């Protein structure tokens, strides 16, 4: 499930802020950085805003001050690039008018947030979740008994689910709740809608949550159409598509026959994709010598951002991209309207699974790779 793409990471039209009687101020310091400017990006569903609200030059001592007007509570990101698809260095919620942050670019876990309970809760959730994926990466690098590794791996995935469920159960802020829902790549649209609707009883005055539910309702309907299409794909041979790889060489998706192949649709700007990359990397390391491979199909438009994401996420498998975004021929054929998406092909090119992530993907590979 790909909620961050829809909610905050997608490109949505800018709009002009209306009248406001509050000023949101972020002060702080940043260390271990090479950038000269820091940006405050505002993301609001209810106001249909995705804009850079303010920026300033980082002083020689690393200090900065950012300000913007606002009317309602929503999500903000501190960024070191004005590229709208670049990732943020810290995410904040304007549940208060003044927030102070102490940022460490080399170790985000050391970031300190003062003055905002919601922002602190959000930071804690992100750090803990990233910590689990770091443990998974270290686990896969171990040369241990396969059964012991499997037990440890299953325990880590179980802990991830426990963290998510606990976070949803105890969340005290609507904006943080939306982020937590969006961070679970295994969550189905209908389940997300049911959970969000239940949370509205807890946060009845949240305009962001109401708008979020409206978006989910539309995507549930679209998902029904896509599911029928995917159902019709099962058991059929996947057509070949030719796209350029990282060096510009034309590669056919059909050239990987003979192995179980995961065609993985993603993009550098898609938060859930980047999270799922970690899971896929773990599974790739486990099965790459047993007749399994991955072909990444990026829907990026910017080559530099794409290549950077591949390096950052340490993706060792073939990567393809024609920089046509959702207008790519392969994306249109497979009705890709949200990310991440994928399909698993048998060695003969037959489609055996569509849009499986996290534990579901892991279990499917355990089944077919025996």
TrEMBL record:
Keyword annotations of the record: Cytochrome c-type biogenesis, Disulfide bond, Redox-active center
Record's GO cellular component terms: cell envelope
UniProt superkingdom: Bacteria
Regions annotated as coiled coil: none
Annotated localization: Cell envelope
SUPFAM superfamilies: Thioredoxin-like (SSF52833)
Principal subcellular localisation of the protein: other
Span of domain Thioredoxin: 232-370
Listed GO biological process terms: cytochrome complex assembly
Record keyword Disulfide bond present: yes
Alphabetized PANTHER family for the sequence: THIOL:DISULFIDE INTERCHANGE PROTEIN DSBE (PTHR42852)
Name of this chain's protein: AhpC/TSA family protein
